[in-house]
Amino acid sequence: MHALPFGRPGRFWRGNLHTHSDRSDGALPPAETVRIYREAGYDFLALTDHFRPEYGYPLTDTRWLRTPDFTTLLGAELHAPVTEAGQQWHIIAVGLPLGFEAPEHGETGPELARRARDAGAFIGMAHPAASLLTLADAESLDAAHAVEIHNALSAREDRGDSWHLTDVLLNRGHRLSAYAADDAHFQPQDPPGCLAWVQVRAESLDPDALLAALIAGHYYSSTGPELHDVALTDGLVTVRCSPVRKILLTGCTPGAQVIEGDDLTHATLPVAMFGHGHCRVTVEDAAGGRAWSNPIHLAPEAESAESADFVEASESRTNTLDA
User: How many CA atoms lie within 13 A of 45 on its CB side?
Assistant: First the structure.
């Protein structure tokens, strides 16, 4: 099972999964933060304020800011001691129920993430490159659904990209999706918001539908270009996209399949070099914006059945966001 979203029922909904307001260290109140994304053409936003004692462990309630054409997901950025670098964990949890309890004394990052996942949340490994996460750190975070492969705020430190760690984890058998996010705080020294997003395929803008699609990996990520279709058929990946200058197929082995040109909108690339591992599509436009598919697993049918069981189990854990 490849979990590619492009042929699934519904449409793509644009959203950001990692955002801060003045309920923690962001500059703007929730309503103003939501307004910026709504006016920028987004369909949904998750405010993920820092779930720390100095802010009163906020789980920012944005339900009152939902409209028929824009919704919000409830979440937080969770913290607990401590990674190999000696820093607190940064864990994105989208879809938390109101009333999610603060970390218990001695609760580790992986334990906190498991508790959040058991509560129905989509769990993301926030900015691994900027946090200097090691492979051991990442493997211990066994509740994660996804890795934050691009973080626009961390790009200021030249540590915005975390695909290397993601590929290593995938090569070790971890089934993870990959999302891009702003990590917007709207502080004067920060880059602006609305720089990185996910496009989630769902039949409606209902928060539960979006959350189920995120958990199942039915989305792609972008900082500019659009992916119109990615399909795997008979050993070939076919890509259709908005005009770009480069289309790449990379994955579980060094090297890549690459097509370069002006205003490319489609390509067909063989997957043979990746064997029974994984590959992914990346496109890059003339302005340097990129879009990424989620990993495409090339496992034999028996392993694909296991993946299908995993996705079904993940979807069954989704809780209602209005609780």
Answer: 34
